[in-house]
């Protein structure tokens, strides 16, 4: 264990390999910089503790390579988690605890890489995720405030439960279930390709702008604004009674509208 801050700066790769429930505990901030790769793993673990815990901010940067935490490399911070790399491979949990200040609860998660592939991402504050050249994929996303997702490729999501969401994909957009819980503003989804969803339940208004939109049922508290070349969805409900469905080329096919 390290009682204070931990800084590591190497030319090459950096590997944190934990065995069993062993973990690296940093009492202060963590700042990792590598030119080739950073790998965090934990083998033969019951999964009860994170591989790496940082009481202060956790900041990792790989200048020309991959940040890899595929082998149970869970990371936990009492403040924030910031990871920057050409490619980020993360199929387990990024868990961010929270600390309370005078005005807000902190627990910021910022991810930026050429491509992002994440299993479960849970945060108590804002999530910002950007893929600069490939796809952005998250199986489970949970954050009470909001999530901002930007991808140079596609955005593919599984279960999403957030305060609000802004998603901008150069390629296609796909979400299984989307639930938003904040009571103001509008959820914006923009796709340079098709936008597909199974179920959307928004406590706000929602706007989807894509080449075509294919989806199941959609419920929003405020305005529902869908704009595409063609639209094929299930039921669409706005509890405030505002539905705007615009098809610029093909048909609009929908179930019950309310």
Explain what this protein looks like in three dimensions.
With 258 residues, the chain is mainly beta. 0% of the residues lie in helices and 62% in strands. It contains no helices and 30 strands. It has strands spanning 6-10, 13-19, 24-26, 30-34, 37-43, 52-54, 58-62, 66-68, 75-77, 80-84, 87-96, 99-100, 105-106, 108-113, 115-122, 127-131, 136-143, 147-151, 155-162, 165-169, 173-180, 186-191, 195-202, 205-209, 212-220, 224-228, 230-232, 236-238, 243-247, 252-253. The strands form 3 sheets. It has a 16-stranded parallel beta sheet that branches. The protein has a 12-stranded parallel beta sheet with strand order 1-4-7-10-14-16-18-20-22-24-26-29, with no helix packed on it. The protein has a two-stranded antiparallel ribbon with strand order 12-13. It is elongated. It starts with 5 loop residues before the first strand and ends in a 5-residue tail after the last strand. 40% of the residues are buried.
Q: Total number of helical segments?
A: 0
Q: Give the biggest beta sheet.
A: 16 strands, parallel
Approximate strand percentage: over 45%
DSSP E strands, number: 30
Mean pLDDT across every amino acid position: 89
Overall radius of gyration: 20 Å
> Which ranges are low-confidence, i.e. pLDDT below 50, for 5 or more consecutive residues?
100-105
Distance between the termini: 58 Å
Helices and strands, in order, run as EEEEEEEEEEEEEEEEEEEEEEEEEEEEEE
- The residue fraction in helices comes out at under 10%
What is the 3D shape? elongated
Structural class: mainly beta
């Amino acid at each position: 264990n390290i009682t204070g801050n931990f800084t590591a700066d190497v030319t090459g790769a950096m590997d944190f390999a934990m065995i069993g429930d062993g973990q690296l505990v940093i009492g202060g901030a963590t700042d990792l910089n590598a030119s080739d790769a950073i790998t965090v793993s934990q083998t033969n673990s019951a999964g009860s503790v994170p591989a790496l815990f940082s009481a202060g901010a956790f900041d990792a940067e790989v200048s020309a390579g991959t940040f890899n935490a595929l082998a149970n490399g869970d990371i936990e911070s009492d403040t924030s988690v910031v990871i920057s790399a050409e490619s980020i491979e993360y199929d387990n949990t990024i868990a961010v605890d929270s600390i309370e200040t005078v005005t807000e609860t902190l627990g910021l998660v910022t991810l930026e890489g050429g491509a992002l592939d994440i299993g479960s991402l849970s945060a108590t504050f804002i999530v910002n995720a950007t893929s600069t050249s490939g796809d952005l994929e998250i199986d489970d996303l949970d954050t009470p405030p909001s999530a901002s997702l930007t991808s140079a490729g596609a955005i593919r999501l599984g279960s999403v439960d957030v305060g609000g969401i802004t998603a901008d994909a150069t390629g296609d957009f796909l979400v299984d279930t989307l639930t938003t819980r904040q009571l103001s503003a509008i959820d914006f989804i923009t796709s340079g390709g098709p936008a597909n969803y199974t179920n959307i339940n928004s406590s706000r208004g929602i706007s989807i702008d894509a080449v075509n939109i294919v989806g199941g049922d959609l419920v929003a508290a405020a305005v529902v604004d869908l704009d595409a070349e063609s639209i094929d969805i299930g039921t669409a409900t706005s509890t405030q009674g505002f539905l705007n469905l615009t098809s610029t080329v093909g048909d609009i096919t929908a179930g019950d509208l309310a």
